[in-house]
Amino acid sequence: MKQKLHFLFTILLPVIVAAQTTFAPKVTINNNTGAAPYTIDSGFINGDAFADIVIGTANGSTLEWYLNNGDGTFTLQPLISNTLSFITGVKLFDVNGDGFLDIVANGFSSNNVVWFENDGNGNFGSQQTIVSGVSGAADFLFADVNNDGIQDLVVSAYFGNSVSWHEGDGIGNFGAGNLIDGSITAPASMSMSDIDGDGDLDLVVATASTPQGNNSVQVYRNDLFPGGTNTFTKETNPVTTNKQYFFNVKFDDVDGDNNFDILATDLSTTAGTGNFYWYEFDGTDYIETQFTTSIGNPASVRMFDLDNDGLRDIILSSGSSGAGNDIVWFKNLGSGSFASEAVIDATQNQAYVFTVADFDNDGDLDIANAAFNQNDLNYFENELITLSLDALESQNISVFPNPTADFIYLIGIENNSQPIAIFNQLGQKVFQGLPNENEGIEVKNYAPGVYFLQLLENNVTIKFLKQ
Fold first, then answer.
1. Which pLDDT does position 413 carry in this prediction?
2. Which residues face 302 on adjacent strands?
3. Which residues, including other chains, have CB under 8 Å from residue 352's CB and lie 6 or more apart?
4. Among 207, 270, 374, 403, which residue's Cβ finds the most Cβ atoms within 10 Å?
5. Nearest alpha-carbon partner for 156 in 196, 205, 122, 198
6. pLDDT, position 395
7. In terms of Cα–Cα distance, which of 101, 96, 174, 105 is closest to 137?
8. Whether 421 contacts 441, CB under 8 Å
């Protein structure tokens, strides 16, 4: 592994500072969750237009979902019955292909991954096992491993020292495990993307063994293309070795060059000794960039466009106990440069995990997080100032029909050469092009939910609902 020092910008031009968003102070959704909330996700559970929240707790072994009331408040729903022990992962995912988000969770100590069927109204069925006998079920993810258009399941077994994938049939069934690696010590966090651009999904795994100090990040190349088989080849040289204790690893295009990089948080089990890294593949080796952060024990990391400038920013949370910054973000300045961190919150204790969505449907992305050491679920509203509805009306700009099922039409645009973009609630760009009053933009293949159409030259954002 090569190491290269990257200087992150600490001084911003005034126009950039003026455009930087801020977050409202913490609003506590529940100050008495199950003991030690350790995992979180968000999505549209009950069929309305407001993103809901689900959490899993480690010591309480509870699965809890919170209904978004649409007014900035959330209501805890009846607990989801389960027999999981020490929940370390939860995801909202349509397991059986009926169009509704089900709840999938793993029990680290019960050695399994299970799911609960959603009837579309937020009522969940009994626990159904996806895979059992996973010795220390540390992490799981859904991805189309064999490129058949159906999502499969990948699972890391912490005590089993193995990673395997299970083929899905799209209606809720998964096959026996296909071993990816049976000799990796203490695999934990994982991510999949096509890192080599050959058309299949590759895997990155971070380890979290104790005693700490000998942990690594390892990439496995999928041989489906061009080899024709779903075998994974472990790269000869790890991305990095001899780190303390990895909590989170993610494939992501950090510098916007259309090549996937790797973000990793070295949490460490010693106070104040962790680090946050970016690894860029140069065709031969991985170049390490260490981000400067006030967080001494970095935990979760994600990239989202928090200020609606078309560039995805970095959000980082803290696993530190006691005083200190708990959630920060780094504004993306483009081409791999980021501003110094801006603090979102410094009032929590071990804010390991967070989720991002436009919870209040105002056109910008908000944050919800769980505080492990306080049994708290919290919400932070993004206060990004966008063009008001009155201003839009004064310009006679509108989208119709809204809600829509197939097409949207943008009217009132005088300059048809002004580019537009459409983003989903995760801040991912799903369309970019030129508007035309006479030709609609086809959205029928978009997943149901809230989307944001942005006029890129003047930063006007219009929200619409895809049914």
1. 65
2. 315
3. 38, 247, 299, 300, 317, 319, 370, 372
4. 207
5. 205
6. 54
7. 105
8. no
User: DSSP assignment of 119-165, as one string?
Assistant: -SSS-EEEEEEEEE--TTEEEEEEE-TTSSSS-EEEEEETTTTEEEE
Tell me the CA distances in angstroms from 90 to 39, 202, 368, 449, one per residue in order: 6, 22, 15, 20
User: In which band, very low, low, confident or very high, does the pLDDT at 277 lie, cut at 50, 70 and 90?
Assistant: very high
Give the type of residue at 165. W
For 215-268, what is each residue's pLDDT tens digit? 999 999 999 998 888 899 999 999 999 999 999 999 999 999 988 899 999 999
Model confidence at 14: pLDDT above 70: no
Question: How wide is the angle at C-alpha 152 spanned by C-alphas 148 and 157, nearest 5°?
Answer: 150
Given a cut of 50, whether residue 29 has pLDDT beyond it is yes
Q: Where are the alpha helices (DSSP H) in 311-415?
A: 389-394
What gap in Å lies between CA 427 and CA 431, rounded to an integer?
12
User: How big is the chain, counted in residues?
Assistant: 467
Query: How far is Cα 247 from Cα 188, in angstroms, rounded to an integer?
Result: 8
| Inter-residue contact 19 to 50 (CB < 8 Å) | no
pTM of this structure = 0.83
